[in-house]
Inverse folding.
């Protein structure tokens, strides 16, 4: 579809200054959305728990966020659905200063996290429970903000540890902080960068949604294969010019992005089961009812994804 003079304009919030959202940023910066007649403006809103009310009120129609806050809202009755997921692997780490070496040494300490109900908050609590630490009782969880704010609080000594990911974790490592808990090594799964919409939108604006997904999937392809363009976009959005960290970020995340970003019911079911610890009704629900594979399924059957990757 040629770019339209009357391209549909939409603001699409994303939930963190994390490389997991690179496909959205790339699709906007490289003009992929415009190719499909959409004018997309990515908007940073720290924490998916804030994005959910904007989706439910109709302030925004499409959101790029972790599945966790959307899954929580859905378990409580919200008419939301996940139509795409770029990553099913958690790359979060809990980092601390020198004296704290083991997870149990976090007892009585303060750990910086995002807002209550965000992905960072949920997975931090799960990780602490994994090591028999009770969140808020054994370990004080401080709502210090997004990734840059958490690193700032760690540097200032306002917290003893912080849950970080992506380039922020690499920066912390350079500053001498070390990993106490690596969540990628724990049996905790939450689909990360997820495209979440209202169920009504899938019916009322299916064509718009498919066009959005085309641009986004092109962004995923670039994030997997084009180092220079991806690094350029990461530099702009992550506000770092450290080439070593940018290259390392590209290398780590290119292997995390799903070629066919269809929501995985098995992974979502694990997330739903974990969620039942804080939202009891989640245990009665089926993950399949929260996902819609049909849009990306159609793009796949139309040959769109295979063509993007040269038929591979």
């Amino acid at each position: 579809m040629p770019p339209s003079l009357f391209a549909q304009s939409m603001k699409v919030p994303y939930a963190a200054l994390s490389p997991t959202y690179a496909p959205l940023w790339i699709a906007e910066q490289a003009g992929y959305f415009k190719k499909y007649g959409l004018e997309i403006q990515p908007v940073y809103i720290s924490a998916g728990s804030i994005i959910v009310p904007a989706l439910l009120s109709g302030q925004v129609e499409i959101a790029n966020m972790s599945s966790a806050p959307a899954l929580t809202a859905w378990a409580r009755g919200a008419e939301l659905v996940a139509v795409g997921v770029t990553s099913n692997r958690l790359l979060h780490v809990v980092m601390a200063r020198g004296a704290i070496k083991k997870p149990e040494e976090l007892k009585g300490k303060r750990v910086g996290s995002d807002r209550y109900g965000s992905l960072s908050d949920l997975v931090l609590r799960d990780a602490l429970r994994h090591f028999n630490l009770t969140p808020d009782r054994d370990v004080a969880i401080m709502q210090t903000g997004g990734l840059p704010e958490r690193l700032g609080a760690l540097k200032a000594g306002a917290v003893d540890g912080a849950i970080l990911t992506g380039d922020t974790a690499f920066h912390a490592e350079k500053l001498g902080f070390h990993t106490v808990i690596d969540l990628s090594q724990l049996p905790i799964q939450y689909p990360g960068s997820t495209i979440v919409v209202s169920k009504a939108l899938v019916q009322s604006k299916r064509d718009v949604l498919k066009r959005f997904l085309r641009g986004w999937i092109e962004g995923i392809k670039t994030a997997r294969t084009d180092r220079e363009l991806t690094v350029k976009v990461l530099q702009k959005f992550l506000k770092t010019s450290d080439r070593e960290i940018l290259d390392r970020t590209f290398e780590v995340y290119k292997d995390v992005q799903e070629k066919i970003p269809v929501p995985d019911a098995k992974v979502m079911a694990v997330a739903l089961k974990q969620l039942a610890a804080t939202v009891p009704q989640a245990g009665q629900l089926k993950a399949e009812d929260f996902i819609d594979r049909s849009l990306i399924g159609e793009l796949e059957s139309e040959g769109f994804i295979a063509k993007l990757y040269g038929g591979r």
User: Anything to note?
Assistant: The longest strand covers residues 8-14. The chain has 14 helices and ten strands.
